[in-house]
Design brief:
The chain is an alpha+beta fold. The chain has 5 helices and 8 strands, in the order ββααβββαβαββα.
């Protein structure tokens, strides 16, 4: 499948049904879910359903999370990208959320940052977004650092009811802030 975005080390493309085995490797790891407010996947069927849900988002919203493929190896290493949040979160509805999830072996290698930079560029240049939101569990310091490194600013802490009353950080970047961040 043709990539949507190519970075120095990654190809970002739509998720396809043949990603299910690697998606299961990612989503069945309890460590990956530590800060996600959800349980690890217990079956390939769950992961197939999630891929189908994301594919539906592509059709309905023109955007959804993308497969993250390491160029050097050709391996699926996680997902990344933008999601149009249609449910109310922190008293906001219909906003773009940037996110990522990596197979544990690929943590700490800069892939989340690299893919987030590319996702933000896509949001502001291709989708003409005016702002993008990032949400992290308050204890997920690594994820917050990724978002801040990419130019998102901490706005507030809030309780996410859908995540079981979990305390989360709300970060934001406007198009103007993104332009200024990338001039430096």
């Amino acid at each position: 499948m043709k990539p949507i975005i190519e970075t120095e080390r990654l190809l970002l493309r739509e998720l396809v049904s043949t990603d299910v085995q690697a998606f299961y490797e990612l989503d069945s790891n309890p460590e990956v879910h530590k800060y996600l407010g959800s349980n690890a996947a217990t079956s390939m069927e769950e992961c197939s359903a999630m891929i189908e849900f994301i594919q539906k988002q592509y059709q309905e919203n023109g955007i959804g999370r993308w497969a993250m493929i390491e160029k050097e190896s050709g391996h699926f290493i996680g997902w990344t990208g933008l999601k149009l949040m249609k449910t109310t979160v922190n008293n906001r509805t219909d906003f773009l959320d940037v996110g990522y999830r990596l197979i544990q072996n690929y943590w700490g290698k800069g892939y989340a940052t690299e893919s987030t930079v590319a996702s933000l560029k896509y949001a502001f240049e291709n989708l003409k977004a005016q702002e993008v939101i990032g949400i992290t569990h308050i204890d997920n310091l690594a994820s917050r650092r990724v978002l801040e490194k990419c130019g998102l600013k901490f706005i507030e802490t809030f309780t996410w009811l859908e995540w079981g009353n979990t305390e989360c950080n709300w970060l934001k970047i406007s198009k103007e802030e993104w332009i200024a961040h990338n001039e430096n």
